[in-house]
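Table S7 (text form). Paired inputs.
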Amino acid sequence: MRFSDLAFQNRFEYTHYMADVRRSWDKIADHYSRRYKISTDNVHYGPLCPGDDILGLIGNIKGKKVVDLGCGAGQNAIALARQGGIVTAVDFSEKQIGQARGLAKKNKVKIDFRVGDIGGLLSQRNNGFDLAVSACAISFVKNIDKAFASIFRILKRGGKFILSDMNPLQYIIDQTDDGVTFNSVYPYNPITINWDWEFDQLDKAPDFHHYVRSISSYFNSLTSNGFVVSKILEPKSTMKTPHIGFSKEIMEEYGYIARHIPITFIIVCGKP
């Protein structure tokens, strides 16, 4: 997927067809890791977004139990383990978990990697974690109420949940020679988008889908499930980011938009 493909009139289709996203992630896992370099030294929250070394949202986690939800190839899990966290990392793609285990071994950190769906977290025990982090994974979850209820359940009282994803604004505007134009209305109700992700090494681009939601819908779902939201951040786009590979691609394809709107949002909340 190139950022230039994020134009509704070109590639997105409003249909009832749902791709098998887990299988698609399995297909691209190796290629994704090679194309998009992500730091293992610093927790990232998404492309063109400052890392936690700048934002300082995580705090001291030495000896604390941490879960990385939608861990992908494990870069954030490794960064959290390097900070002294006792880390569990969950992803629904077996290939991604395989990548993560190899990367953790290379970086000489111990992490409990598990194949699982962050929409349910049935294997995680109640009140087990001090911190949950989920970076750019929640848009692949259909039922966020169920997901947030599960995350609330597995956090200890006083625990923190840091959620990030791509800002919905980028999905409703498109770059033109004269600036920007609107592709669609704001997602007052969730929008399902079907697309494919092209890699030169693959004969056929795997099909994906994700859900575009307003930031207020995340806020309302979190608070309805018991969380207390302390911060909502929409950091100014920057190339000083741990998520460097995807950031370069966005800047090359849609630099005007990236320089004028935040690409990533972050919500920090807690379990009282």
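Next pair, protein 2 of 2.
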Amino acid sequence: MMKKNYKIGIALGGGAARGYAHIGVLNAIDELNIPISYISGTSIGSFIGALYASGNLKTFEKEVRSRNSFMKDVLFKLDPIFPKLSIINGNEVIKIFKELTYIRTFEELNIPLTTVATDIVNNVKIESKKGDLINAIKASIAIPGVLTPTYINDNLCVDGGLIDPVPLQSIIDMGSDRTIAVNLYGLQTSKKKDNKYNIVDIVDRSAKIILNNVTHLSFKNNEPNILIEPPIDQFYGWDFHKANELIDIGYDAAKEILNVNSELFI
């Protein structure tokens, strides 16, 4: 039995297609009856977090499980723009959210949410927690050079992963006294031998190393009560066709660590 007066927050990190693992993590949390009071999200974490906070994550999960290439098909639909700031507009991704829920503002969500984006001009973290939810998600998921930067007020914003890959501080600031952080850039499962690496592997792993190190450095002042790092190092950020595997791995990883640390919530 979970102690209801704990304010439990969960920080969902970025990771593109690897973000499907968040669905499994949240499924495990629901199964264990852990009541979430606050959510923060960076990049795909903001998208998944908003769906969970709106009560529509299960619908999205059914869609991606039944059509394994669902998000890949959406992301690479003919949505190109003249490549001044990016190669894809990103409106098709936002269209998914709009089709899953009528919610358009933070205030309508069932659970308070903070999304994180990066002011690309001023190198500043931009948190959104009220007003236009759709615009905040679009800014948070704007992978530099791929999806169009979005203005939040007067700030030109891109993917929040550049400045805060797993926004733990955001849920602390919201009032959490128990925290769960989900880092999708853990490096514990790479089994590929160095002579099998190609240029794609080098670039992908370099990005993971940077983001994983930035994440753990950001935890120096405030360690999460529980850190979940699903063993998904073998997956690429564009593996949208591997939804079932990623969701299941996220579920198994979360269930194991949450069961072991259940006393934190009692």
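The mean pLDDT is 86.
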